[in-house]
Amino acid sequence: MRIALFATCLADTLFPAAAKSTVLLLERLGHEVVFPEAQSCCGQMHVNTGYQKDALPLIRRHVRTFEPYEVVVAPSGSCVGSIRHQHATVAAAAGDASLAARAEAVASRTYELSELLIDVLGVEDVGAYFPHRVTYHPTCHSLRVLRVGDRPLRLLRQVRGLDLVELPDAEQCCGFGGTFAVKNAETSTAMLADKMRHVLDTGADVCTAGDASCLMHIGGGLARLQAGVRTVHLAEILAST
User: Fold this and answer.
1) Residue 215 has pLDDT above 90, yes or no
2) Is 141 found in the same domain as 116?
């Protein structure tokens, strides 16, 4: 299968290993991965902070860039959630019915990594080996917007050497929420403290998730505590052998 990779801003600028691991994993499974060079930000942060008009050019660019591909994957539940639930709505609100229809079409064939692996490729055992004690944080967008359910857990359970431990109060937000963490720093920090306590209670060596943004938030807090627990994107674990 030929699959287009939407790397996302965070992967491109701060966490390239998530995007690289996505490519490595899919190629190992026998698929061709292409990287459309015209891609840029999906516009999520603009929409979420009320700048819908500024998001429109980004939505147009995204649709134009990924229209030629039958399958698109992103290592980010947050960005896929924006593509599916914001792009067409923003275009329609701006009076561009044509763009809205095109955005809907692109969104219908855009998948978060665990969705692609299980729902499209029909694979749960990706041949990974990761000998560590791991806990999984279900990010808000993957949990509540995409509703990926237990797909990431099903993939992790098949990883050889991995000891998967349940995260207490897993569905509780980590407190990042994009600009929420900036505009509501005290509340965000309190939520992060709860999440870190739950992670540490598991005795895990690694906390994983499908969104680099949440891992950045949790990982930064754990690093400041010098807790000895690292954050690793789901794609990196699944690509490990």
Assistant:
1) yes
2) no
